[in-house]
Amino acid sequence: MNAETFDFPMPSHDRVAALIDAAKEYCAAREAFAKADQAMGSERHAVGPHCDELDAAADQLGATQQRVADLALALTSDGTFDAYCELLAAETAGRP
Predict the structure, then answer these.
(1) Which of 2, 17, 50, 81 satisfies CB 3.0 to 4.6 Å to 40 for a cystine?
(2) Taking every pair of C-alpha atoms in the chain, what is the biggest distance, in angstroms?
């Protein structure tokens, strides 16, 4: 008899928590990008020093956005979001 290792996915509540964390990271990356963009725009005569900062902020923004999208897609495609919506609807039934 051979033993096989199965790779079980994280429970849905852990994956939803990961999505929330990823969304927070995305918000922070978006703020960092906005600050870098503003710094570059306010110093038009000295753009060079800010290019690397803006490029790094854009890379981080893209990476965090991709992580949010990947997690949201996985949670949507496996029905987790639908299940959570039904659960929340049942818990809040009759409330304004």
Answers:
(1) 50
(2) 72
Instruction: Measure CA of the first residue to CA of the last residue in the chain; give whole Å.
Output: 58
Using the predicted structure, report yes or no on whether residue 70 has a pLDDT greater than 90: yes
10, 59, 34, 73 alpha-carbon torsion, rounded to 10°: -30
Q: How far apart, in Å, are the Cα atoms of 52 and each of 22, 56, 66? A: 24, 6, 21
Provide Rg for the chain, Cα atoms.
Answer: 20
pLDDT tens-digit map of 7-32 = 557 888 899 999 999 999 999 999 99
Using left for φ > 0, alpha for ψ between -120 and 50, and beta otherwise, residue 7 falls in beta
